[in-house]
Amino acid sequence: MGLIINANFAQMIDFAAGFMGLDPAGDDGRKYGLWPSEIPGWPCPSGEAAPGEKPATPPKKTEKQASGARDTSSLRAQP
Amino acid sequence: MRSGRALGRVGLGLALAVVLAASQGCTNWQGGVPGFLKNRLKDAMECVDYGVTVTKDPQFSFYLAVVSMTPIGCGKVDGTFYGMGGGDIGAMRIHYEHWGVMAYGREVTGWGNSVWSFPEFDPKKPETMNCQGVGIGGFFTPPFDARPGGRPT
Fold first, then answer.
1. What pTM was estimated for this model as a whole?
2. Which end of chain B is more exposed for a tag (fewer CB within 10 A), N or C?
């Protein structure tokens, strides 16, 4: 049996920055952080899911959208 | 003179904002408010690693590094972790190989899942774990495979 005690100081900044709409550690929706060059769609990547969820898939086009009319039913909260 | 100082402060604030914003990007809003809060919960749990490890067979590790600058000790453990660590809480797989000689050291850590369901790590695949050089030498010599937010610890 062993003991682990560790404080991640950079993650504390990341936690606080998260409430300001920032993700300095690049780890939202991921187990570990990634650098900007490793993140598809940086700086505001899409398609990443919240922890424990399946990756989001693009919404399918509805009949209204296909015919050119604007459909707002699939709009989500954006930062 | 006063206006110069004020301008300097505004400039400094703006520079800090730009650096923070450009450093990594935006918070993830996929999943709406629940998704946002899950990410913040994970961020909160990443702030500390605190718990005990249990292994089937005897394994050794003694390692200490103050703010990732003074790594000393060595060890390799492959077992089960009970506590809060790696952004998760509960019982999870853990693998770590750490060594340090003050000026140089290396840390390889793999955390399993308990609450979340991320892809499992493979000790043979470093890209599925958190690997980083520590100590002055570890910061500035290859391989530069540290992740953002991994140091200092």
1. 0.75
2. N
